[in-house]
User: What shape does this take?
Amino acid sequence: MPPVKVLENIFWVGAVDWNIRHFHGFTYSTHRGTTYNAYLIVDKKVALVDTVHHSFASEMIEKIKEVIDPSKIDYIIANHVESDHSGSIKEILKLAPNATVVGTANCKAGLEKHYFGNWKFQTVKTGDTLNLGERTLSFLEAPMLHWPDSMFTYIEKDALLLPNDGFGQHLASSKRFDDEVDQNILMEEAAKYYANILWPFSTLVTRKIEEVQKLGLKIDMIAPSHGIIWRKDPMKIVTAYLRWAKGEAEKKALIVYDTMWDSTEKMAKAMLDGISSEGVEVTLFRLPVSDNGDIIAALLETKGLLVGSATINNGVLPTVAPFLREMEGLRPRNKLAAAFGSYGWGGGAVATIEKALKSAGMELVAPAMTVKWVPDSNELQKCYEYGREFAKKIKATE
Ligand code: FEO
Assistant: This one.
């Protein structure tokens, strides 16, 4: 794939990773692959904004060579230390040994601890600028969006924001721009990205967007370092981020569970029928056969969460524990929740679930529903009613 002109004298020189199916180790499924976006800015001085995963270094370098001799690169702007963006700095510095790496103080410390290189480094902070000739790069620190080193780069002349991971999506495509791809797929992947990567930092997301708005920066294009570039309607993703950061969601329900001898599953399905009878859309995921990243993505736009587990060894099934841990880490906002499950003698699963959901910051809206051994028809009716009441609480939210 050749370099792609993004704007006059600004080129996409990144790589498309069609085959990656897991990100951050195995924590985040990437069914549609991803891209590592690097941008080459050719002015009196030449700057490369971010690089690509090290396994795609040669692809990036070939693209750069189609535009300029890589030895002419003066600056490598490192918006973020994580290796999917910094992984080819070493390779490009072999071809551009006089280039200066530019990033935050945390970026400098992070790169040194990742690559142990003795590189020329220019530390920048919010408000600092770097003149390239016709263009001036402005830097805006964005700590914990999503690492301490994270930074946005802005180019006033082009009204272009380069926010690295912010506003990205794991979406491999032969297309580069938002007006060229399916909007539903684009927003689905953008939401999954937010839920799995940025959700715990929602307060900071809101603050950073407000900070940019107060600065009055004109933004005609947002070019993240993963996925598709927002040029047709960059405010579409900004509006979505503000909504997700506030914890706004649709009046829908999610049932996430695992079962041992089908009793908890029978409860789950009776609850599903009860919720559905109230006209509330509900989706059911059995944990061992479902993808965690997909469940988390679905939860982003869902108001209510029911979590169920059979009891084993006084606690939840081992298949349920990682999901609860994810909830405690991601801390989804403004969710209504409740626990349910079957048991034989002691019923510790629901207590474990409730503790985790509370710790995740969710509002428990009903006492846990439990059934001893196998639910009979009366108990299934109670589960159905429990689902109905849960749906009514969802509908009553603003
Ligand atoms: Fe795409 Fe935080 O790296």
